Amino acid sequence: MSDANKAAIAAEKEALNLKLPPIVHLPENIGVDTPTQSKLLKYRRSKEQQQKINQLVIDGAKRNLDRTLGKRIPLLPPPDYPQTVSLCFLFNYIYMKQCVESSPLVPIQQEWLDHMLRLIPESLKEGKEREELLESLINEVSSDFENSMKRYLVQSVLVKPPVKSLEDEGGPLPESPVGLDYSNPWHSSYVQARNQIFSNLHIIHPTMKMLLDLGYTTFADTVLLDFTGIRAKGPIDCESLKTDLSIQTRNAEEKIMNTWYPKVINLFTKKEALEGVKSEKLDAFYSCVSTLMSNQLKDLLRRTVEGFVKLFDPKDQQRLPIFKIELTFDDDKMEFYPTFQDLEDNVLSLVERIAEALQNVQTIPSWLSGTSTSVNLDTELPEHVLHWAVDTLKAAVHRNLEGARKHYETYVEKYNWLLDGTAVENIETFQTEDHTFDEYTEFIEKFFSLASEIMLLPQWIHYPMVRLDCEDLKTGLTNKAKAFANILLNDIASKYRKENQCICSEFEAIKEHALKVPETTEEMMDLISYVEKARTVGIEELILRIQESKRQMSYFLDVFLFPQEDLALNATVLMWPRKINPIFDENDELIENAKHKKENELMAKREKLILEIEKESRRMEEFTEFAELERMQQYVTDVRQLQKRIQESEEAVQFINKEEELFKWELTKYPELDKLKVNIEPYQKFFNFVLKWQRSEKRWMDGGFLDLNGESMEADVEEFSREIFKTLKFFQMKLKKELQEKRKAARKRSLEEEKIEEEPKENATITMCSTVMEQIKAFKV
């Protein structure tokens, strides 16, 4: 064992042998009259007994005083002593205790006090008041030490008598340990632990100190963002502030990665960077490096977040940013733009943006290895920092937006009735009631006055964090008030327009009736009566209405912008009294010419209709000669065209008969047209039926075999067979009936009888029916 270790062990033993007495406090009842003492003082003994007590006290005091510096002499009275003698020993013990306590003592060593003071941090010693506090602390320690030494000396010299009033609150004296083994000192384990700490405590490595100094130099007096001058920029959009600070964050991040990080890399690329670090301790060393770098970057981010939060400090509003907020009017709603929630989200997102910075910084081992999968430092801010920042910013934003919210509430209180349906309800109620033109104008003026009041309100309202722009809301409310006024204006303008249109329509009606060519004698007589009434009563009433229209027009010209068509209408109303007289003169001439013209047109239409019916009859006769099944589609088209022409002829007959009734002529009859309608129906059904059969047969024969359904085909074929049989019977009966009619007619003409009795030629339609029937039978087989 070395000499240094031996000296350390010896010093340790000396420290263990040094025993300081415990610090005790003096009993509170010393020097105070206890109840027992009071009782003894009040108790009077006889004169003889008192003298004996005094003598015993004097003798005992002298004897014990001589032995104070010798061995401990018990001051206990014999058990058979009377109570008086016990009291004597009590006063004797008190007296002896006072004598022992008054003996000189060694004060506390100054070295001990200095060691105690070194345990106190220097920051707690600064200031005049702290110096006085330290002096008081030293006096208190010295006093406690002195009291403990006195108590120790008393307990070492005197034996306390068993009297209740003499209990010692300090407890028994500490005894020296017995049976403890000090053969295994702790110094070796201490040295071992210290060496282990030095081997694992990488923070004291010189490279770590250089890294720490580099971090302090780079980050000590800087933050990621420059928060100065934000308020000096004046009102700014929250999105613009977010964009500016985001750009600053990105630039600061790039600057750090281009300046500080290369310097850090340069430290660890030197040979002396890992000097003294064993290979098995490299991971722990680099872990310490990563922790130190992470702490430096986290501290930078934390100070940046704190700096941003400090912008919103309620005690210092000179750094608050000023946000632009507008009171907008959209879809009949008064709203903030951006909304308070959007503003709060943008402010809080800046904290998130700061926290996202410097999250991709590689660790030193990852950079030195150069692998594709990089490992980044843990630079994420603690959750409590982010929660603190978010909560503080939320409270600050809510507090600074309170003024804008109250200003908004004043608008809601005063003018929300324009938006919540109250104004609409009032207007609708007013419109449903019967009001005069003057009552309308009075109600309209109330809305125009309200619009003027809103426009006189201030455009901008300034708060510590907000510049509130009310222009859009003012404009919207003003337009809303004017819109309600315009609703009423449009209402009475509409009534005014309708009145003018009614006046003009009545004049136009007079003109139209007067200038309309009558079609019948009845219309002519009605027209004469109508024009006569219009010349007298109608024109006078219209002139009075025109005068009221002129009075209302004078009001509209001040508050209402007439469209061009309304201006033309107003001018037309004023000009009608002058335009109506020439129309009456022209009416007289038209009545004379109308009658002759319509009669000639009716005669021409009757002749044209007769020619058309003859053409249709000839076309109908051609149907009996149709015998080619391949042209069935064309036959169907021809039938449809003929049916359309017959329909047009029927409409012409109705028109002609109506005209004849108006002229009081005899109604003409057209039996040939009715006959055509009856005769064409069988051909139309037959041709369509044959065409349908041809298409079905082609689909069954040429279509997919798997798509065929035997049961439905059989049903369809049976249906075709029945229908073609019915059609064949119909045309045979028709042909037979026609022959019978011709024979009856021929009996009256004997010259033609022989020809009629001859057998007629085979009918083409019957032939086609037979052919189709044979086809169906063949298909069935």
Automatic annotation (TrEMBL):
GO cellular component terms, semicolon-separated: dynein complex
Record keywords, A-Z: Coiled coil
Coiled-coil ranges from the UniProt annotation: 599-659
GO molecular function: dynein intermediate chain binding; dynein light intermediate chain binding
BP-aspect Gene Ontology terms: microtubule-based movement
Xref: InterPro entries: DHC (IPR026983)
Name recorded for this polypeptide: Dynein axonemal heavy chain 12
Record organism: Gorilla gorilla gorilla
Gene: DNAH12
